Amino acid sequence: MAEKIAKFPHGFIWGTATAAYQIEGAWNEDGKGESIWDRFCRIPGNVQDGDRGDIACDHYHLYRDDIKLMKTLSLNVYRFSIAWPRIFPQGKGGINQRGLDFYERLVDELLDAGIEPFVTLYHWDLPQALQEEGGWANRDTVGYFKDYAAQVSKRLGDRVHYWITHNEPWVTSFAGHHSGILAPRIKSLPTALKVSHHLLLSHGEAVAVLRDNGDEKTRLGITLNLSPAHPASESKEDKEAATRFDGYLNRWFLDPIYKGSYPEDMMILYGDKAPKIRAQDLERISAKIDFLGVNYYSRQVIKADTKEAFLGLSQVKPADTEYTEMDSEIYPAGLYEILKRIHNDYDAPLMYITENGAAFSDKIDKNGQVNDKSRIKYLKSHFLQAHKAIEDGVKLSGYFVWSLMDNFEWALGYSKRFGLIYVDYPTQKRIIKASGWMYKKVIEKNGIEI
Ligand code: IFM
Q1: Of the residues 182, 323, 402, which should be mutated to test ligand 1's pocket, given the most ligand atoms within 8 Å of the CB?
Q2: What DSSP letter does each residue of 184-211 carry, written as one string?
Q3: pLDDT surpassing 90 at residue 78
Q4: pLDDT at residue 246 above 70?
Q5: 19 touches ligand 1 (CB under 6 Å)
Q6: CATH code of residue 440
């Protein structure tokens, strides 16, 4: 029987994503300053098993070998982040040229391998010195971020065409400053909301400077973690709770970027805790971008819960379904749903899936291989939903699997493995998993066997 293939459009790009703190290591080399994650990991109890990103995948030293592996996987593109404290060890002031030299070597090596770099400027590793001055809650940080974007794009802008200002500002805002489960471990709703506004403003300011330093090939965007919010029942209360959750996670970030306003229902709900917005802030935040990066992992099922003071809701874990090692429901249809919804509600922007993937408890078998069947199933089912969205008119231009290789999963340390490549941390040996070989085939065929 002839093999049936779901073909992606010509020019569709396939890649993987990583982040500086999660893979680089070399935490204090070549003039790098301390980041909030270097500090956070040193406080006992913050990270599972006391793990830290000091060495991580040692990518800072092994990047050439890692790029060879990317080539083996036939990647078209590679998304990585720049560590701000490598460029400005104090967050502002004196530039550390050796930090820029590293990223220049990385970019040149990628280009030599025929792999297009997608650069994220901020993936959570704020210079600790700026945290001492209030971090993202201090409006001055917006200006320092703009200076950082200016310096990086001045050095790399002739070779890097794709820039992502922020990765998942919801996480920086709420996981970093409300629940406090991530660095800098602050627990205050007004602070989290102020931080979200400053992050969005810094996005807009960076877009302006990246545009000025760029050329006709420059493409700018931001990456948001987005999920459909489904009511746990048909009740009015659950439906309203799901709308509130959607406002909190999705619309709070999408609306200012695409509509130049915060959602009214959320402004009312946050009341006097809502951020103070100055004239022109929203105009800056909604500066024209060229693409939206969508990070999708799962949906959220929501029920009304009057005991929960913040949003009056709680999350429900559906039974009779599968979960990843992150305890995240496997729900591929949610990817189609969120893409279609953005297409409909936000004027059909060009999008990339800048992260999608799953952690499973991978083991090396007796032949030295990692046969990660669950990840293959997870990825293929999500690829097919992306394909369906494109067929239905969504402007989706590429897909980045999270992650290239196993790495430091923030407060969960090295306990969770997301990679297409297995990393044996004590030896830094890499093994391409079965999912990596599957992905190579998908890329080479620009399609998936059904
Ligand atoms: O590892 C993270 C990444 O840094 C941001 N998005 C989600 C991933 C998996 O949890």
Answers
A1: 402
A2: T----HHHHHHHHHHHHHHHHHHHHHHH
A3: yes
A4: yes
A5: yes
A6: 3.20.20.80
- Give the pLDDT band (50/70/90) at residue 290: very high
Asked whether the beta carbons of 3 and 92 are under 8 A apart, the reply is no
**Which of the following is catalytic: 24, 116, 337, 355?**
355
Bond into 415 cis (ω within 30): no
Spacing, Cα 280 to ligand 1 middle (Å): 32
Residue 295 Cβ inside 6 Å of ligand 1? The answer reads: yes
Ligand 1 atom index nearest CA of 19: 4
- With a 6 Å cutoff on the Cβ, whether 119 touches ligand 1 is no
Q: Chain centroid to CA 39: how far?
A: 21
Ligand 1, pocket-test mutation among 24, 51, 125, 168, most atoms within 8 A of CB: 168
User: Residue 401 above 80 pLDDT?
Assistant: yes
Is the CB of 355 inside a 6 Å radius of any atom of ligand 1?
Answer: yes
Residue 75: which domain range?
5-449
Tell me which DSSP letter residue 329 carries: B
Q: Per-residue pLDDT averaged across 103-109, rounded?
A: 99
Model pLDDT, residue 2:
66
Longest dimension (CA), the chain: 65
In 3D, which of 19, 105, 114, 86 has the Cα closest to residue 404?
Answer: 19
Q: What is the pLDDT of residues 112-153, one digit of tens each?
A: 999 999 999 999 999 999 999 999 999 999 999 999 999 999
Number of structural domains (the chain) is 1
User: Quick check: bond before 184 cis, omega within 30?
Assistant: yes
237 is catalytic: no
Among residues 24, 168, 337, 409, the one annotated as catalytic is 168
Instruction: Determine if ligand 1 sits within 6 Å of the CB of residue 406.
Output: no
Judge whether 248 and 191 are in contact, CB under 8 Å: no
Q: Are 71 and 443 in contact (CB under 8 A)?
A: no
| 355 classed as catalytic | yes
Candidate of 223, 405, 410 to mutate for ligand 1, largest count of ligand atoms within 8 Å of Cβ: 410
Helix (H) or strand (E) holding 415: none
CA-proximal residue: ligand 1, atom 4 (nearest): 19
Task: Give the C-alpha separation, 52 to 408, whole Å.
Answer: 8
Confidence of residue 338 (pLDDT cuts 50, 70, 90): very high
Tokens read off for 140? 């001055």
Per-residue pLDDT of 144-186, as tens digits, reads: 999 999 999 999 999 999 999 999 999 999 999 999 999 999 9
HEC-encoded secondary structure of 359-406: CCCCCCCCCCCCCCHHHHHHHHHHHHHHHHHHHCCCCEEEEEEECCEC
